[in-house]
Amino acid sequence: MNKKISLGLAISLIVIISSITSIFTSFLTFRKFSDAINSERYNELQSMDSYVKENFYGDIDENNINDGILKGYISGLNDRYSRYLTAEEYIEEKSDNAGEMTGIGITVEEDESGYIKILSVMPNSPASETDIKPDDLIVAVEGTDVLETGFDEAMENMSGTDGTDITITVRRNDKDKEYTLTRREIEVVTVTGEMLDNYIGYIKITGFKQNTSEQFIDILENLKKNGAKGFIFDVRENGGGLLTSLEECLDPLLPEGIIATAEYSDGHTENIVKSDKSEINLPMVVLVNGHTASAAELFSASLKDFGKAELVGSQTYGKGVMQTTTELSNGGAVILTIAEYKTSVSECYDGVGITPDYVIENENDDTDEQYDKAVEIINKKIQKVQ
């Protein structure tokens, strides 16, 4: 039995076949084009790889090579905040974000002499159980002079795993003393607080880690229970941290609503910080300076923009872009800038910073003029509401 096909159906079949052929041809063309682009992009890298393997006088560590390539790729973005982390660096990054560290419990910097200057000693740490204190100099690590190894290598030699010992030589007033300490895991304290005169609650936040919000809320509630009539929040030298931690710290301070939004490369926006109905209605002041950055700036800008606090200090750093961390199959990770953010009230401050309501520069090493001004302002605010 013969089957007939109508003219309309025949034309439809022709169109469908032509479309399929066109799509398949386009796919092959795109694939060839993509392969050509990739080939062109990596041609010099392949040439270098062949040259090095044929001529390099030494051993080649393929893992180090791969890490170097990935670091170079991200570096090529010319973005100061995007970076590639090796597997080891990523482990350290996760530990840092968690508010944990393994060591002897000191923060340091390179002294002008080239030795290691101790800036602070963490509570409940191996160092805190000795008489080591800020401004001491570490002049030797494991018996080797720091000037001999150099600052960076000496710092690397000080790192180690939980339960291992380290011997350091500490100099104070030109006298040296040797200490042998056992490294251990330490919870990093990022929030401290105290009650000042006239029932002013003072809270200093040095970073926004996973455990920061818990520390912050505990101190905030304790100061409230003890009769705090106003608060000074000090985020000077705070380089930022985790957005989730920031949101949890802001939540009890701000009214219900959308606090901050982010705009992504494709133009869409998302709400990144929200607050519920619970709100503390007490006078507030925020201390900032040129090292107040990222989440610390958003903390300050949010309290300012929603009329909760005035800012005292110097112009902030100006980081208003957001990064995300993605783990790779090799155990490393990419930290990539993905969006620009701002409060839902004002414009983004990236590259500009935030100008305080009271611009005060600390010009005298013996006095903290910014702190004194903050105390003066909060006292006036408290008197107005009494």
Low-pLDDT runs of 5+ residues are: 1-34
Round the Cα radius of gyration to an integer and report it. 28 Å
Shape: globular
| CATH fold-level label of the largest domain | 2-enoyl-CoA Hydratase, Chain A, domain 1
Number of helices: 9
What is the straight-line distance between the termini? 102 Å
Strand-residue proportion:
25-35%
Biggest sheet layout: 6 strands, antiparallel
Mean pLDDT: 89
Instruction: Tell me what the CATH architecture of the largest domain is.
Output: Alpha-Beta Complex
Helicity level: 25-40%
CATH homology-level superfamily of the largest domain: 2-enoyl-CoA Hydratase, Chain A, domain 1
Total E-strand runs: 19
CATH class of the largest domain: Alpha Beta
Q: Output the helix-strand order.
A: HHEHEEEEEHHEEEEEHEHEEEHEEEEH
Domains (count):
2
The secondary structure category is alpha+beta
Task: Give a structural overview.
With 386 residues, the protein is an alpha+beta fold. The protein has two domains: 84 residues, Roll (Pdz3 Domain), CATH 2.30.42.10; 195 residues, 2-enoyl-CoA Hydratase, Chain A, domain 1. The protein contains nine helices and 19 strands. Strands 3, 4, 5, 6, 7 and 8 form a six-stranded antiparallel β-sheet that branches. Strands 10-11-12-15-16-19 form a six-stranded mixed β-sheet, sandwiched between helices. Strands 1, 13, 14, 17 and 18 form a five-stranded antiparallel β-sheet that branches. β5 and β6 form a beta hairpin. α6 packs parallel to α7 and α7 packs parallel to α8. The radius of gyration is 28 Å and the shape is globular. The termini are far apart. The N terminus is likely disordered.
